[in-house]
Design goal:
EAL domain-containing protein, binds calcium ion, alpha/beta, 12 helices, eight-stranded mixed beta barrel, globular, binds ligand C2E
Length: about 280
């Protein structure tokens, strides 16, 4: 390894080489993943407080790698964003989610998950043709756009003017927009003015702090006032304990998501929840 003048490791470092190498290998493997049917989706319930009734689900992608086992989307989604494969992965995800949601709509009617959320990355949002692609997929599946929530991050929307336009057009198509990981990106409250946001997803890093006397608790508390005033809905992310759930309910939160309620699960388990809900 070589050090440059500033004393920092340069990219001649063998460890960095290895990292880049494994990145490249994983990138190659990802190219095969769709063809080899290694990607699949799980769905995490979003529940209504305080009783925990199913309000919707968020689709989350998984990759079962033939050698490494499950690879986290926290690893391969950023990789796919860097190497451009996110367009293909994103399209695959969208097709699956729309297909699944249409099936739920047909089979469960009014009892189907009211809202199904799908994560859309910055690159997809910067594709001017994205809304048309979305529209085509929705109409091919006969899916009511109102069933679908598109989750975007502040950073992705703030990137360029194209992204903001794309978000507005998606909203015009009848989809709802959720601002994901709120508070962690290049936060700008003006986004809440410029962007047709229905759902504000308050990031886990804030929710983690609610039961202690912390700045996070103050912020989580304050956000409820903002969402009410702007006629948006707040969702607390990453709720892990009953204490947090109780605190959030007292603070005015009506929607939550987290391991305390349910982990991401296969579609068949979501259907089990739907049938349970019927008989309750
Ligand atoms: P995200 O959109 O913020 O999704 C929430 C993540 O938090 C999920 O991780 C979920 O499993 C996890 N989570 C939910 N409740 C809890 C909790 O109570 N405690 C903890 N510790 N974690 C909780 P996951 O599935 O590993 O996804 C990580 C990230 O990868 C997502 O964060 C999202 O940014 C990205 N991602 C996942 N699926 C997709 C996709 O289909 N498309 C795109 N573009 N990104 C995706
Ligand atoms: Ca999300
Ligand atoms: Ca999130
Ligand atoms: Ca996150």
């Amino acid at each position: 390894a070589k050090r440059n003048g500033g004393g920092r490791w340069t990219w001649f470092d063998p460890i960095m080489d290895q990292l880049a190498d494994s990145d490249a290998r994983l990138s190659n493997d990802l190219r095969q993943a769709i063809i080899r049917d290694e990607l699949f989706l799980v769905y995490q319930p979003i529940v209504e407080l305080p009783h925990g009734r199913l309000a919707g689900v968020e689709a989350l992608v998984r990759w079962r790698h033939p050698e490494h086992g499950l690879v986290s989307p926290a690893v391969f989604i950023p990789l796919a964003e860097r190497d451009g494969q996110i367009m293909e992965v994103g399209r695959w995800v969208l097709e699956q989610v729309i297909h699944q949601t249409a099936r739920w709509q047909r089979e469960y009617g009014a009892d189907a998950p009211t809202k199904v959320s799908v994560n859309v990355s910055a690159r997809q949002l910067n594709e001017p043709g994205f809304p048309a692609e979305m529209e085509a997929l929705l109409s091919a599946a006969g899916l009511d756009p109102a069933r679908l929530v598109v989750e975007v991050t502040e950073t992705a929307v703030l990137g360029t003017g194209v992204a903001l336009d794309v978000v507005r057009r998606l909203h015009e198509l009848g989809l709802s927009i959720a601002l994901d990981d709120f508070g962690t990106g290049q936060s700008s409250l003006s986004l809440l003015v410029d962007c047709p946001v229905t759902w504000l997803k308050v990031d886990k890093s804030f929710v983690d702090g609610v039961t202690s006397d912390s700045p996070q608790a103050v912020i989580v508390n304050g956000l409820i006032g903002i969402t009410r005033g702007l006629r948006m809905q707040a969702v607390a992310e990453g709720v892990e304990t009953a204490e947090q759930a109780e605190w959030l309910y007292q603070a005015g939160y009506r929607f939550a998501q987290g391991y305390h309620f349910a982990r991401p699960m296969p579609a068949s388990d979501v259907e089990l929840l739907l049938t349970l809900r019927d008989t309750r």
